[in-house]
């Protein structure tokens, strides 16, 4: 069951479809994911930077208003009548001082009211007055101003103070700031200026700031108390332990929602402006980009699926047809042919398939013709066997008649001739024992002795265990014949032929040596060149027509065609000294 799902067992159409889908869809998905992630990161970074810029603008506005309040305290401190009021010097004109304070509120409309208190508890204001007779020098805001030694400080919402406004501003509608007026010579506090800032100017500075769908800004003082919180806010206070440094961002889970906070602290007011918005709320541009990315991925997937099916069909269909043709050829129908004009690899394969079938039919026809020729040759061989039997019987009759009349030399010659024919034919066998080949050669030499009388002598030196091995028939006789006719016959006086055999490195080396006239260097090179031909491949008949020394080359051709190119003949000769032929033959203990 598992083998069916292996990729190597899939049809090529499924493999090609899978390859195209993987090569097109996977990169598209990866590219889309990478682009989406990159865009999210870029947009997130831009949103954070833009939010910080908006917060910075709000802080600049708040610092502008705070700076105006600080400037107002400086104007009040330098006024001569205010100085006289602080020093408690007479005469004192309260009307002119109130008119002066009223002019400041007119110059800075964001100021809700101004109150000046001297160290003796006396106060003067254009809009504010004391709720009770309790001295204002006992108020917390007065003590905070005295502690700061003339440094302007924003206090936040006035809660529980003994001061009320004619305009009836509540504590949530104003922000208080104080600054002590210090004698430059003695550094003693001569009084305190209290200034109330209208909260609506902070609301106006932040109401136009849009952070996503419902993001907003809130302002906190250095103690973490709220300075300004919009009415639609879900987070009204942020613990100061979340704020680290002058600016930064962090994420928190508020009421099950992942919320991002971006903050920046104002060094002048020590207030922290915080932007609050959901972290998963993408900008409109991000959603639009994601829409285009998803659309692109779907478009690529659609094109990839359609293209993969079309290409796989165009490739797998001719391959399937070619496979069907091959199955028919495998079943024995060699008449099938691939018909197509494609110039790609499939077309080349189809034409090669047709060529292969043509070659197969040619070889089958050739094999049939060779088989027919073989049967005809066997028939002719059977018919020719009648002649050797008749020849054997005739030679036996001649030998018997010669011995009866006392012609023993004639009888011996006829006997050797009969042996020569009998061993040469060997009942049609191609392999005989070396002993039989030696006997055949000896019969041939005895016949030649009758012809050449005392001119020929020979010696056999072959171990008995080697004589039991099988060799090719007619292996020695052609070599010995060459030694007689081209060596011994041409010399003066008696010639000698040595026939030796030995075993070496798994092969049998048979040496035929004579002391005849030898051959010239040119003749030896021609013969060695003929023996160097490889008869294991190509046109053997054509090669045999071009060789020198037909007898020896014929022996080598039979050796190589039977046992391979390793087994062959080696010849060496010196003119006037004789010739040596070495036969390398495999050791064959028995026939299969």
Number of helical elements: 15
User: Which strand order does the major sheet show?
Assistant: 2-1-7-6-4
Distance between the termini: 47 Å
CATH architecture of one domain: 2-Layer Sandwich
CATH class of one domain: Alpha Beta
What does this entry look like structurally?
The chain is 50% helix and 20% strand. The chain has 15 helices and 19 strands. It is α+β, with helices and mostly antiparallel strands. It has helices at 12-78, 80-87, 94-107, 140-147, 199-207, 284-330, 345-384, 386-404, 408-425, 434-452, 464-467, 477-488, 521-531, 540-545, 550-563; strands at 111-118, 123-125, 128-130, 153-156, 163-165, 174-182, 189-198, 216-220, 226-228, 247-254, 257-265, 272-278, 431-433, 456-461, 470-472, 495-504, 507-514, 569-574, 578-586. Helix 6 packs parallel to helix 7 (345-384). The radius of gyration is 63 Å and the shape is rod-shaped. Among the domains are: 79-203, Beta-Lactamase (2-Layer Sandwich); 210-281, Beta-Lactamase (2-Layer Sandwich), CATH 3.30.450; 334-383; 443-586, Histidine kinase-like ATPase, C-terminal domain (Heat Shock Protein 90, 2-Layer Sandwich). The strands form 5 sheets. A 5-stranded antiparallel beta sheet has the order 2-1-7-6-4, sandwiched between helices.
């Amino acid at each position: 069951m598992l083998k069916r799902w292996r990729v190597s067992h899939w049809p090529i159409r499924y493999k090609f479809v899978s390859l195209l889908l993987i090569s097109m869809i996977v990169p598209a998905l990866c590219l889309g994911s990478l682009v989406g992630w990159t865009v999210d990161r870029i947009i997130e970074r831009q949103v954070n930077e833009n939010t910080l810029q908006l917060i910075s603008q709000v802080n600049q506005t708040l610092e502008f208003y705070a700076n105006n309040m600080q400037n107002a305290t400086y104007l009040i401190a330098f006024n001569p009548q205010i100085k006289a009021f602080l020093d408690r010097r007479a005469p004192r004109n309260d009307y002119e001082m109130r008119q002066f304070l009223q002019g400041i509120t007119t110059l800075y409309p964001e100021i809700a009211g101004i109150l000046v208190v001297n160290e003796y508890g006396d106060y003067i204001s254009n809009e504010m007055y004391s709720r009770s007779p309790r001295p204002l020098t006992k108020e917390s805001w007065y003590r905070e101003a005295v502690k700061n030694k003339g440094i302007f400080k924003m206090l936040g919402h006035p809660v529980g103070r003994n001061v009320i406004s004619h305009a009836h501003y509540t504590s949530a509608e104003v922000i208080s700031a104080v600054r002590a007026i210090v004698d430059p010579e003695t550094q003693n506090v001569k009084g305190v200026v209290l200034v109330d800032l209208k909260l609506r100017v902070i609301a106006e500075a932040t109401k136009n700031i849009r952070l996503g769908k419902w993001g907003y800004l809130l302002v906190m003082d250095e103690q973490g108390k709220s300075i300004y919180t919009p009415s639609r806010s879900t987070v009204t206070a942020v613990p100061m332990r979340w704020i680290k440094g002058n600016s930064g961002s962090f994420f928190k889970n508020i009421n099950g929602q992942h919320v991002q906070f971006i903050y920046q602290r104002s060094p002048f007011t020590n207030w922290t402006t915080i932007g609050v918005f959901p972290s998963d709320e993408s900008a409109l541009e991000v959603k639009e980009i994601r829409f285009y990315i998803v659309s692109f991925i779907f478009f690529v997937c659609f094109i990839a699926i359609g293209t993969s099916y079309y290409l796989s069909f165009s490739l797998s269909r001719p391959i399937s047809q070619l496979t069907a043709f091959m199955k028919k050829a495998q079943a024995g129908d060699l008449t099938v042919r691939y018909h197509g004009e494609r110039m790609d690899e499939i077309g080349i394969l189809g034409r090669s398939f047709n060529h292969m079938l043509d070659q197969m039919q040619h070889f089958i026809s050739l094999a049939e013709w060779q088989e027919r020729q073989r049967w005809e040759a066997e028939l002719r061989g059977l018919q020719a066997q009648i002649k050797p039997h008749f020849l054997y019987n005739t030679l036996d009759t001649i030998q018997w008649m010669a011995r009866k009349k006392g012609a023993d030399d004639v009888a011996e010659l006829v006997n050797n001739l009969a042996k020569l024919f009998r061993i040469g034919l060997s009942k049609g066998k191609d392999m005989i024992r070396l002993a039989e080949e030696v006997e055949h050669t000896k019969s041939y030499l005895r016949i030649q002795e009758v012809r050449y009388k005392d001119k020929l002598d020979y010696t056999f030196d072959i171990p008995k265990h080697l004589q039991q091995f099988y060799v090719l028939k007619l292996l020695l006789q052609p070599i010995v014949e060459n030694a007689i006719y081209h060596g011994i016959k041409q010399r003066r006086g008696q010639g000698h032929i040595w026939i030796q055999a030995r075993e070496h490195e798994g092969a049998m080396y048979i040496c035929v040596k004579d002391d005849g006239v030898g051959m010239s260097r040119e003749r030896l090179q021609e013969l060695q060149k003929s023996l160097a031909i490889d008869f294991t491949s190509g046109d053997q008949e054509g090669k045999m027509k071009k060789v020198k020394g037909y007898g020896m080359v014929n022996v080598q051709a039979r050796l190589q065609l039977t046992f391979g190119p390793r087994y062959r003949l080696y010849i060496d000769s010196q003119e006037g000294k004789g010739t040596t032929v070495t036969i390398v033959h495999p050791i064959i203990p028995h026939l299969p």
